[in-house]
Amino acid sequence: MTAKWKRPRLSATALKLIAAAAMVFDHCGVLLFPEALWLRAVGRITFPVMAFFIAEGVRKTSNIRRYLARLLLFAAASEIPFNLLNAQRVFYPYGQNIFFTLFLGAAAAAALDRAQTRESGAVAALACCFASELFCCDYGVLGTGLIVLIGLAPEEGPKRAVKPILAFAAVYVLFAIAAPRESDGGIRPALTLACAAGAVPLLLCYDGTRGGGRRPVFAKYFFYLFYPLHILALYACWVFWNHG
Question: Are 226 and 20 in contact (CB under 8 A)?
């Protein structure tokens, strides 16, 4: 008689650490090894995990203004590192970092959840989604839309993220198939975005706990700080690699 397989149990901290590691793989693929598409594919699990916890944060926070202000603060702090990652220059107006996407997605979800009327909430949410596309935020309207859909899903816990994430990945598959091959050097780079579906089995292992035990104050901001700091470290490696 074989032992029954037990699904792993992952805390919020464990999931965020996995997402952070995947992010490093992704950004190594962007800056250091652009031909290694598997690095980009691994990194695609990061955003859906982040989107889930942002949607959960909007639902659970006792001070939505402070929560949004924190996201906006780190969006501003991360913009130069993001520009260095994607264009190797300080000023690059053609793309905004993922914290802007998270901020707009959180603002849209909060508007739908807390507006005085459904109509005003819907208008504010649509404005946030439009802004994410207008200002070329990372993942654009699909990114903000994913956060909104997770927030609206009727299921409880991580199950609420399953259908939105699978739909998010499926849209990128359709884009990849429909896009002219010569526009992105082939269909494979676009298809790496479909690997976002890999976040689903991870989130289904979420046990609802924070994990990590008692944390010092700075640990609360570790995952916020990790984004710009690891990009700066990778950029330093790129400079040394190419100009050292």
Answer: yes
Q: Is 63 helix (H, G, I), strand (E, B) or coil?
A: coil
**Is 144 within 8 Å of 104 (Cβ atoms)?**
yes
Check residues 179 and 45 and name the one with the higher pLDDT: 45
**Buried b or exposed e, range 12-44, using 16+ CB within 10 angstroms:** bbbbbbbbbebbbbbbbbbbeeeeebebbbbbb
**Tokens at 227, concatenated:** 């984004």
Q: Report which of 9, 17, 85, 81 is spatially closest to residue 45, judged by C-alpha positions.
A: 17
Residue-wise pLDDT tens digits, 203-221: 999 999 987 666 555 567 8
Contact 188, 60 (CB under 8 A): no
Structure tokens at 153: 């899903």
CB hemisphere CA count around 112 (13 angstroms): 23
Task: Please state, for a pLDDT cut of 90, what percent of the chain lies above it.
Answer: 72
Tokens of 101: 């996407």
| Model confidence pLDDT, tens digit, residues 117-176 | 888 899 999 999 999 999 999 999 999 999 999 999 999 899 999 999 999 999 988 877
DSSP secondary structure, 137-190, as one string: BTTHHHHHHHHHHHHH-SS-GGGGGHHHHHHHHHHHHHHHHHS-HHHHTSHHHH
